[in-house]
Amino acid sequence: METALLVVLGLVAGLAIAGLAVFVGRSRKPEADPAAHPAVLLADQRIVELGARVQQMGELLAKAQTQLQSSVHERLDAVTLHLGTSMQTASKNTTDNLQKLNERLAVIDHAQKGLTDLTSQVTSLRNVLSNKQTRGAFGQGRMEAIIQDGLPKGSYEFQFTLKNGKRPDCVVMLPDQRPLVIDAKFPLEAVTAYRDGKTEDERKFAAQRVRQDVMKHINDIAEKYLCPGETQDTALMFVPSESVYAELHDGFDDIVQKAYRAQVMMVSPTLLMLAIQVIQQIQKDSQMRESTDLIRTEVGHMMKDVKLLSDRVRKLQMHFGQAGEDLNTIMTSASKIEKRASRIEELEFDEAPAPSAIAGAVRKIQAAE
Asked: What is the DSSP string of 223-259?
């Protein structure tokens, strides 16, 4: 913009000079002497001044153009530097963002791999639970894990054979020598059908199936594993799913009541762990009761040892008392000897004492004794 202004000023100056020259040429008369006319002299003077001004203006224009070029170069250098810095910053930020993006993509890939593994595990678990035999093995394995974690070895036995030839999944030995029977049952198909029922008829039919399947399990446990005089009066039916157990207790209270009357208690994994802890405490109490006689005998021996220790301490105390009396007697004798020595030391032997003086000294000593 400054360059354009300077160019316009130059053009204006040139046009002014040209107009002035034309005006001067027209004002001259051919017959007159140019040098003698005052106006011509004044015009020549003005032309000279105008030329000087035009030259000065040209120099200013050149100087301004030089400054403008320098300013433009400086601004271009500053813009170039700023642009380079901005590009470097943008490149660094882009690199950092790409690195963070790669890290997040790695995390997403890891999570995707975990989801894939979880999906395969869920599919495998679904395949396991869809088969009755594998489902039964799953429930028994979970029950065995809970019992092994809660009870010491020797206090339980898996696949124990009763006198009637039946073999429950597990028995726990109690202090009265009658085992507690635990059998795992998993009525998953009927409960799943009851949950998935969309119409009232489907749910009603599925509920009837749940009652039939669960009551069959309860009756089998009561008939096969409850042996009077051999086993405990109550058996446990282990349901290895908290949701299935909750569904049975919430929606089928009649089945729960019938199970109680049949002396069969349905337990979930949480309740089985609680029952195992109670059984463990009962076994500890039984062991304490069995060890009561031994503890009583040991306490009697300990009381005898304490009594003997007390007698010996009293004898030692008597010895210390006698020793104290002997020490007091010895200190008394030593004090008397010290006094006699001091009196003897006070006697003077430079001159022969008179018999009366010796007799007086003897009397003093005897009197001091």
From this structure: HHH--TTTS-S-EEEE-S-HHHHHHHHHH-HHHHHHH
Among 23-32, 168-177, 324-333, which is the least confidently predicted range?
A: 23-32
d(C-alpha 120, C-alpha 124), whole Å = 6
**Using an 8 Å Cβ cutoff, are 199 and 241 in contact?**
no
State how far the Cα of 110 lies from the Cα of 103, in Å rounded to an integer.
11
Radius of gyration for the alpha carbons in the chain, expressed in angstroms and rounded: 62
Global confidence as pTM: 0.46
Q: Is 170 helix (H, G, I), strand (E, B) or coil?
A: strand
Residue written as token pair 């599925």? 206
Phi, psi of 236 (to 5 degrees): -110, 130
Q: Output the DSSP codes for 300-313.
A: HHHHHHHHHHHHHH
| DSSP string over 264-295 | EEEE-HHHHHHHHHHHHHHHHHHHHHHTHHHH
133-290 placed in CATH 3.40.1350: yes
Digit-coded pLDDT (tens) for 247-294: 888 878 888 888 888 888 888 888 888 888 888 888 888 777 777 778
Residue 26's pLDDT is 47
DSSP one-letter code for 34:
G
Strands 180-184, 170-172: pairing kind: antiparallel
CA-CA distance, 14 to 20, in Å (whole number)? 10
Residue-range domain boundaries for the chain = 2-105, 133-290, 295-368
Tell how strand 235-238 and strand 180-184 pair up.
parallel
What is the rounded distance in angstroms from the CA atom of residue 137 to the CA atom of residue 122? Answer: 17
Backbone angles phi and psi of 180, in degrees to 5: -95, 125
